[in-house]
Amino acid sequence: MDNYTAFKQISLPKLNNLQLSLESTCLKLMEEAGELAQAIGKFRGMNGEKIHLKEQEVVEMISKELLDVAQVAVSMMFVLEEEYGINIKEKVDDHINKLVKKGYIKIEK
C-alpha cells in the first residue's frame, strides 16, 4: 500500500465489553446508516421539514454519524475476523486492489 499517491488512514479501536455477533452488528450498522441518512436528508431540508440549522451544524452532525457508521463497520470486520477467521489485512488489500483496477486509486510510479 506504500505505492498509493493519496492514502488517508483512520484507525478505529475494537470495542470492549460488548457481545457482538454478525447479526447484531449488521443491525446496528443499518441503524447508524439510517441516522446518517437522516442527518444528510432531514437536516438539509430534503424531506420538506423546515429545519433551522446552520450549515456547519449539519456538517458536524454528518461527520459524527459517519464515524458511527465507520466504527460499526470496523466492529463487524472484527467479528468476521474473530468468529469466522477472516484475515482483515488480506481483505483490505484485496479491496484496495479492486479500487486500483477500477481507476479509483492511482499508483505512483
TrEMBL record:
Pfam families: MazG
Organism from which the protein derives: Crassaminicella indica
Residue stretches making up the NTP pyrophosphohydrolase MazG-like domain: 22-101
Protein name per its UniProtKB record: MazG-like family protein
Classification lineage: Bacteria, Bacillati, Bacillota, Clostridia, Eubacteriales
InterPro entries: AF0060_NTP-PPase_MazG-like (IPR044548), MazG-like_dom (IPR004518)
